[in-house]
Amino acid sequence: MTSKAPNSYSMVVESRPSAIVGVCEKILSKLEGNSFSKDDIFAVHLALEEAFLNAIQHGNKMNPAKKVKIDYSVGLDRIEISMTDEGNGFDPESVADPRSGENLYKPEGRGLLLMNSYMDVVQFNERGNSVYMSRCKEKPYLTESQSQTQV
Amino acid sequence: MAAIKPRIGVEYAGNATIVTFTDEKILEEKDIKALQESIMYVIESASGGINLILDFGNVRFLSSAVLGLLIRVSKRIYEHDGKLRLCNINPKIYEIFKITRLTKTFDIYKDVESAAKDLSKSN
């Protein structure tokens, strides 16, 4: 029988926009393997893209010598991701709300809003160069006995 | 030679120019830049203000960088006294527009026909 226990993985990639493609392939295939819904996969994909773009643009300033470390674990009902860049960090509280006033007409500044909207938890470390995100499956896996209890 | 991606299709219907995104995913920075250049070229090539319809029918995934592209495109169109309509946006992508409140900024229509009809009324 295939093990369904949570598995933790780690990878380090270069500060190139295209580097996220391989990261997404690995993580999203594990979500598919654990029967996460298409909505879950869309949400995690979007959060990964936005977090990675923030890490390489604002964190590593597109410096190819700097790396981004991604740690993740995919369980039956939850995915957890940590993404850490080599930048000086930032204060997420200082990011303006892109939905208000003239910010609505600015071409940038929506990544953090989307991460917060599509993941259940988004937390930055004190320095602000590492983000932890998690999302629970929309339709959680229930064991046979749990299913019977729910009915 | 490798195909140039992302591609767009350009059609003309009445007083409207319809630009269709042909790729399912619009993500990479270089692709977004190329896409922006292509659309800007269409806008600049029009004589006078363009009536542009952007057809998202093929698009299944995009990031916030594409929203930035749309803002830049809309600014350029309005500078040229043109009009912009978006259409055929699938529900998951529309959700991104709703979350970012860009549904207030852009005129979004169900399909090309309804967007074109609106543009024909306003001229």
Question: Can you put this structure into words, describing what you see?
Answer:
The complex is a heterodimer of chains A (151) and B (123). Chain A is an alpha+beta fold and 151 residues long. Chain A has one domain: Histidine kinase-like ATPase, C-terminal domain (Heat Shock Protein 90), CATH 3.30.565. Chain A is 34% helix and 23% strand. Chain A contains four helices and five strands, in the order βααββαββα. In chain A, strands 1-2-3-5-4 form a five-stranded antiparallel beta sheet, covered by helices on one side. In chain A, strand 4 and strand 5 form a beta hairpin. Chain A is globular and about 50 Å long. The mean pLDDT of chain A is 91. Chain B is of the alpha/beta class and 123 residues long. Chain B has a single domain, classed as Transcription Regulator spoIIAA, CATH 3.30.750. Chain B has a five-stranded mixed beta sheet with strand order 1-2-4-6-7, sandwiched between helices. A two-stranded parallel sheet of chain B has the order 3-5. Chain B starts with 7 loop residues before the first strand and ends with a helix. At the A-B interface, helix 2 and helix 3 of A face helix 2 and helix 3 of B.
